[in-house]
Write a structure and sequence with these properties.
six-stranded antiparallel beta sheet, 18 helices
Amino acid sequence: MVWPSPTGKSSGACVIDGSPALRATAGPAAGLKLPIEGELQLGRAAPGFELLAEDAELSRTHASIWRDDDGVLVIEDLGSRNGTWVNGVRVERHRLETGDLIRVGESTFELIEAAPPSLLYDDELIRPWYEHALQVLAPGAVLLDFHGHTGFNDPDGFTFSAEQLVTTLEAAGARGVVMPMHEPDGYPPANDRVLAQAAASDGRLTAFCRLDPKRDAIAEATRCVDAGARGIKLHPRAEGFELSDPEVEPIFALAHERRLPILIHAGRGIPTLCRDAVALTERYPEARIVLAHAAICDLNWLWREIPRYPNLLIDTAWWHPVDLAALFALVPPGQLVFGSDLPYFTPFMSATMAVRFGLQVGLSQEQLAGILGLQGERLLEGGEPLDLGPAPGPARLGQSVLLERLTSVLVLAVGRMLMGRTGYEPLALARLACNVGDDEAPEAPVCRNVLALLEGQERFAREHPGDGPPLAPGIRSIMLAATISRTPRVPLPPLPQFARGDELRAEAQAGHRSFEATRLHRVLLPSVPPDLRHSSAADLLMVDSESD
C-alpha cells in the first residue's frame, strides 16, 4: 500500500539511503538529533530522550518511525491525544521524505539524511557539538579548511592519504586545501601528488605547493602554480630556514605578482618569524601571508600590530582554550582564517572551537561566516581580503571561578595525554568538578556537556586503545571539553544523557574510581619513538622534540 503525501506530491521514491535522523527545529527539544537506526519511538516515555519528557503536549507513546517492506521510512501515530502532523497535515500513517517537517506535541522535527561518518579519531563522539555549531549556532556558513595535508614520510610518524582527507572533509560537509606533509627528500614528487589529488577531488580540494627555499624554490613554485596550485606552504622549522634568508624573498615576490596566499608554520624555534613576516607584508602587499597555529609564539605582541596589515592573517589551527580566546578577542575577524591542520586536528573539533570562541567574544553571524570559509575563498581567488570590522576585545571573556577550575584541570589532562598517558588522574578530577551541586546552577549546562564528553572519551579509549599513538585515544574530545568550559555564554546542544539530578551526580562521582575500575588500557606507544625535532607536532601538540 502507498499512503498519500500530505503535500499532494507523489511519495513513491522515498527510500532514504545513508543514515536518516530527526533534527528538532522547534519546541522543548529544539536542537536535539535523533538517529533512526531501527524503529524510533517518540513520546514522553521514550527511553533515552529525557528532553521529550518536558513536552506537555506529547503523549507517553505518541508516534513510531520504522521502515516498510520497500525500505521506505514510515511514521505512524500511536493513538496520541494531539495527533501527529507532517508538513502541516494530520496523519495516521505516512511515508516520509527527506525534508519533511514532523510535529508531535510542541516539538517540530525535520527528517534529514545524516552526513557520512568520519572515520578519523574520535570525530563521531564530537559530532553532536559540531553539528550544533554549524547548523544552529552558525547556520548557513560554508566551511573551507585552509590547512590540511597528505603524506607518508613525515618523521613525526603521522600519515594521511587523499582518501582519508576527502572522507573527513565530506563528513564535515567541507572543502579544503591540501599540501604535502614533511618530505625530507624534497617536494616536487609530493607537489605533483597533491596537484593530482586536487584534480581528482571534484572540487573538494585545492592544492598548495610546499617549498624548500634552498632547493630551487622559484622554479618549483612557478611550475606548480602554472599546473593549478593556488597557494604556497612554507615550514621554516622543518626545512631549517628563516624568513629573512635571501632565498626566501623571491618566493614572496612571486606571491605578490600572482596574488597568492602563503601559509607559514608559525611555531616555536623561529625567533624572528613574525617580525620578518610583518616586514615582508609591507614590501609585498599583494601577497596574502597566513601565519598558522594562532601565531602562538608571537600573539602577545602581534595583535597590536596586525590591524595595520590587512594582508597579514592568522589561521585557527590550534587547541589551547586560552590562546584561542585571546586570538578571537584581540585579532580583527577579517584577519582570521579557519584551518584544522589535518591530520593533527580535525574540522569537527577545530570548527566547533572557532564557532564557540567567536560567539563567546561577540562576533556576528557575518563575521563567523567570513572566518569559517568566505575569507579563505577570497584568498584562493586572489581577491582583496574581506574587512569584517575591528577586534571585539576581551570584555566578554569573564568566567565563573568554578568553570575556571574545570578548564584548568581539563588542560592538565590534555597535557598528560599529549605525552602518551591516559590522563586518568586529571580526567577523574574533571568529572568531580562537574558536580556543582544544583541542577539550576549557571554552570550546570556546561558541566553536563563536559561530563558527556568525559564519559564518551573514556568509552572510546576502552574500545579503541590503539587509536591515536603517540597521543592518548580520544584526546581531541578533551580538547573540545576545555573549549566548552571556556565558552559558557554560548548555547549548547541538548543532550539526552546525564540530563538531571542523581544520574548526573553519579557520573561525576565516578571520578573516585580506581584506574582498574575504569577498565582503561595503558596507551600503546610506538616501538620506535617519532623524530619530532623538525616537526609540526612538537609545536602543535606541545610535546617534547628532544629525547630524554
